[in-house]
Amino acid sequence: MSIYQSEEELDRLLVQLKGLLIKYESHSSSAQSDKYAEGILIYERAKCAETAYIKEIEKLQQQSKESHNLRLQDKQKILNELKLKLDHLKTLVESNQEKLSDKHLDSSLPYSNKLIVWGNEIQDKTQDSINRIRDLTIDSEKIGADVTTDLEQQNESLNRIRVTIHGVDENLATAKSTVKSIATAILKDKCTIILVVTIILLIVSISLCIYFFRDIKT
């Protein structure tokens, strides 16, 4: 799992847990029990995702590691706040179960038997929550696979852009070299022309001098 996949998984679970705990105080006792059973499972999965994210951070270079550590601290703060809400929800659920047990159970039953009945009810609710979590996990894995595919495609696009930019740099370097060669050739041609003209002028001058000297002698 890549660093971005582990971070995305942790973010998704935080959002899921946060949404689950919205206004939990105003829900019915049955709904609170369901929310707590489901919430504790999401919390444990979030802790596992947190551990996976930390392991991926440790593999990074120092600069990237510092950036991800800051983001991790923000996520841990949110997770701790949600855990406090989950603990408060737990106290409400326990209080509801005690009231329900006292109301519906045979008062002659020993307290240990009441706990067994209460535990069975919690187990049934927890199993339902596990089934819901399993379905959510399957959906999230599909979403995660789609996200991973998108990231890979974006990475390939970036690599193609880098290759294109590298090719442009090479073309620019070649063009500069060609222009430099042309300029050098032009300069050499100018020097050659000047030299030829100078030689021609020199020959003409010498010829004129010889001609004038002959006229003078004659």
Automatic annotation (TrEMBL):
Positions in coiled-coil regions: 43-99
All copies of domain T-SNARE coiled-coil homology, residue ranges: 120-182
Transmembrane segments: 193-213
Annotated GO CC locations: endoplasmic reticulum membrane; ER to Golgi transport vesicle membrane; Golgi apparatus; late endosome membrane; SNARE complex
GO BP field: protein transport; vesicle fusion
InterPro entries on file: NPSN/SNAP25-like_N_SNARE, T_SNARE_dom
Any one GO MF annotation of this record: SNARE binding
Subcellular location: Membrane
Annotated membrane topology: Single-pass type IV membrane protein
PANTHER family: VESICLE TRANSPORT V-SNARE PROTEIN VTI1-RELATED
Name listed for the protein in its UniProt record: Snare region anchored in the vesicle membrane C-terminus, putative
Organism: Theileria annulata
